[in-house]
Write a structure and sequence with these properties.
The structure is a homodimer.
Chain A lengths: L10 E2 L9 H7 L9 H18 L5 E5 L3 H12 L5 E6 L2 H13 L2 E6 L8 H10 L5 E5 L1 E2 L4 E2 L2 H11 L2 E5 L18 E3 L13 E5 L1 H8 L12 H8 L13 H17 L1 H21 L15 E5 L6 H12 L1 E2 L1 E2 L8 E5 L7 H15 L1
Parallel strand pairs in A: 1-12, 3-4, 3-5, 5-8, 8-9
Antiparallel strand pairs in A: 2-10, 6-7, 9-10, 11-14, 13-14
Helix pairs in contact in A: 1-9, 2-9, 3-4, 5-6, 9-10, 10-12, 11-12
């Protein structure tokens, strides 16, 4: 209790956080800057620009929230949903379900498109629901459902939504940097992600982007945004300069250094190369897991490349295995969440960790512990 | 744009952030941990315990929010205020004014106790307002008003409130660690702070504490808390274990390492010694500033020891002076905010920076630049 904390050197192959790139860790220790320092404002501009590259967007309202991805989820919903609005949420897992809870807190009327946990959202189900609810103002879905390992086709989903005129919110927490995302081409109106996982940075920040259409909608809302911290009108006064930035909150300078470094590394690699690397390593990991008798839950063409859900073999005490992996190999993998608790493990192969060495380490450790 | 970011080595003597202790910077770079790792849960428990020491409280609901102090402000208000509630806010500066904006967003009915910017809240005014509004559910005030340099007597203010039965929220963003705070003795029902300033840690986290009375109130609210991220019912399921922690969000492990180290350093010094150090150095700084013709705005017995507002001498271009301090001496001091913009500078002498060397550096730099 009275001494400095020394974390174990864990290999983080759960659903996140994943291991942080050493250069990012180093960046965190640089001297702090004031949140209105001209040099810090330059850093913010660079982060904006790098996030535009990462999200594949020209949206001016692209920046990072000073809180984790869950705060980003709330920020998107609270700005685009007004009390009384009808909101369609496609739910095939824990995180989409969280969206429905937030919409309810805003006073929105939730209509759920229900999908089996472990499957991509069926576009036909969304289209049918929209036909029955053409007055829906917003449609929200999760790109890569962290709780199930299923990747939905958000390009197709967004196309369907736009036929009905609603705004599209896509959760890209687990996909950003690791799976193809095209915010502009696919006409996603708002999206939030996290700073860890595909970006190889520390947890605690939420990259976020809003289309001009979404901004326009927010500026013309009748009911004021019910959150102060997440009110985009206020946030944009701080982020969108130059020369006229208004104080909003004290930005976490050192976290921003880490994010900047992580985004630079991603750009250096080339984002398309990063997508390809995650895909290729995923295929290798699945093949090696099959070698030791472990089977993925999600059908091949619906799998998140950087987050696999693996069925727990009969008779195996899943919690015991995870604890042994942690103790014996310093390896963290994830438990199942919600409906899949006790039924799957979640193995992340993300960002800095998506490489052959980690695949071998993970498979060998599992083999050793399961026996 | 395409290279790693190297911040200047600024001396941060504005209203915050202040310079971070080197040991804290070092702690930030340690390997990340999962938010449900047994070792991380231990770290969370230690942080809780260290925060209880720092806040002088036994409140079980004492923990740290994964976002800056502004998020802490919103968290306290959104949990303790329900739509339609009458809320008294004592406003003598920018940050108390922000509280009124948040209460309005919640749908509360704000009654303002107005105080002159640069003065402590007059307890008599609060008592008079409570007599006229005995149905007020919550009274909120700022301990150390960062925008004006005025320190209010929150012990006296809280005593008055308790005669009327309302809940007390105190902003301790600028005071925690630097000025005496006694959450339990003074019967403060909820308080939030920040991780920088008096704690010498990086920005981005908000230590927070709720009394058992506040928790009881929250658990019996008729209207659900309108924020998901800040809903105390959910946050406490994650923070208050052991053995039954429910996932809430991915906690920023490396930020927590920094906070843990900062709180340890504070405990090592002894919090009473830290309060004394800030007070003594404040007296020295004021005396040295007077030597060069600079006068504090706030009367002596109402001054925040770690944040001085200094009147700008006639004929001085205040923005130019600040820019020259930054360029020539790498020294950041703060501008006035809100009503005091253009009228004062704000000089912070906080945490790691509260020492004689910094006093001399600041005074000599000011003397050099003002001429």
């Amino acid at each position: 209790m009275n001494k400095s904390f020394t974390p174990y050197n864990r290999i983080l192959m759960g659903p996140g956080p994943s291991n942080v790139h050493p250069q990012v860790l180093k960046a965190l220790s640089k001297p702090a800057l004031g949140h209105l320092d001209p040099q810090f404002i330059e850093l913010m501009d660079e982060i904006k620009s790098l996030l535009k590259y990462t999200f594949k967007t020209e949206n001016e309202a692209t920046f990072v929230l000073s809180g984790p991805g869950s705060l980003g989820m709330e920020a998107c919903l609270v700005n685009l949903v007004q009390s009384g609005d009808k909101v369609i949420v496609c739910v095939g897992g824990y995180f989409a379900n969280r969206m429905t809870q937030i919409v309810e807190k805003i006073g929105g009327h939730v209509v759920v498109v229900k999908e089996t946990w472990g499957r991509a959202i069926d576009p036909q189900k969304l289209e049918d629901t929209l036909k029955q609810n053409p007055d829906a103002k917003v449609v929200a879905f999760v790109h890569a459902e962290t709780s199930t390992g299923a990747l939905s086709n958000i390009k197709t989903l967004a196309e369907i939504v736009h036929k009905f005129g609603a705004l599209v919110i896509a959760d890209t927490v687990t996909s950003l940097g690791a799976v193809e995302i095209q915010i502009d081409k696919w006409q996603i109106d708002a999206s939030y992600s996290c700073s860890q996982k595909g970006l190889s940075c520390v947890a605690g920040m939420s990259p976020i982007t809003f289309s001009p259409r979404a901004i326009d909608y927010i500026k013309n809302r009748k009911i004021p945004v019910q959150s102060w911290f997440n009110d985009l009108n206020l946030l944009l006064s701080y982020w969108n300069g130059p020369g006229k930035r208004a104080y909003h909150h004290t930005a976490p300078s050192n976290q921003f250094y880490g994010l900047h470094e992580a985004l630079l590394l991603l750009k250096e690699e080339g984002i398309e190369n990063s997508w390809r690397r995650h895909k290729e390593n995923s295929v290798k990991l699945v093949s090696r897991l099959k070698d030791i008798g472990l089977e993925p839950l999600v059908p091949e063409n619906e799998r998140i490349p950087n987050l696999l859900t693996i069925k727990i073999p009969d008779g195996v005490d899943e919690a015991k295995i995870r604890m042994e992996l942690l103790k014996k190999h310093n390896l963290e993998i994830g438990a199942g969440l919600g409906e899949l608790a006790g039924k799957v493990w979640r193995i992340g192969l993300m960002g800095y960790n998506s490489n052959e060495k980690m695949i071998e380490f993970c498979v060998n450790s599992l083999k050793d512990v399961i026996g």
